[in-house]
User: Fold this.
Amino acid sequence: MKIDILTLFPESFKPFEESIISRARKKGVLDLNIIDIRSFTLDKHKKCDDAPFGGGAGMLMQVQPVYDAVKSVLKKNSKVVYPSPSGRVFNYNMAKELAKEKHLIFICGHYEGIDERLIDIFNAQEISIGDYVLTGGEIPTMAIVDALARFVPGVISEDSLSEESFSDGLLEYPQYTRPQVFEGRSVPEVLLRGNHQEIAKFRHAESLKKTKKNRPDLLKGVQDEN
Ligand SMILES: C[S@@+](CC[C@H](N)C(=O)[O-])C[C@H]1O[C@@H](n2cnc3c(N)ncnc32)[C@H](O)[C@@H]1O
Assistant:
């Protein structure tokens, strides 16, 4: 899969030079490029912002550099994503769907965001990562790309995708590793006995308990469907 990320702050994407994403890039299963929007500005001072029509606090990103940056990578099969607090809230299933695309282009907003006409021209999907406002689209883009990359074949093992939070509508069960006793707290007995049926039953019950406590809204979704 090819992903082009357009940003005024390319250095923000250093985390993608580490760990799983870095390995996927080296293996060639993720062709991830970070593109500096500022290199497309025609302004001799490299200015990339402008005041919004109608007034109001803050500046907007200039249309021309963003437009030219998108055009430089846009293909017939590209899907443009604009992370924005005004978008639909991102979730597990959206990550899975995005992972099926051949080419994704992310526009990282900054200041007060981008000109609405860019969203229309490129039919950009607006995606929010939650009901709060961050200073820029770099962190949201990283969160969305990281989450969808896990569903791109070859990035992580198939096993890691099963029985994780949201995969079956519930949160994941609690997990434990060595030592068996830590700070006076023991690992649940059932996990030590090696009875796989019992372990599965225990884990499902714990999953339900955790979901009920932390995300009762997920259980409501399951009940409504039935
Ligand atoms: C300061 S924000 C702009 C906020 C915008 N004026 C508003 O009130 O909705 C700058 C950029 O950060 C990104 N951003 C901020 N919060 C976000 C969120 N919750 N989800 C996705 N992107 C977000 C967007 O790309 C946005 O253009």
About this structure: Helices lie at 19-27, 63-73, 92-98, 116-121, 138-149, 158-161, 196-214, 216-225.
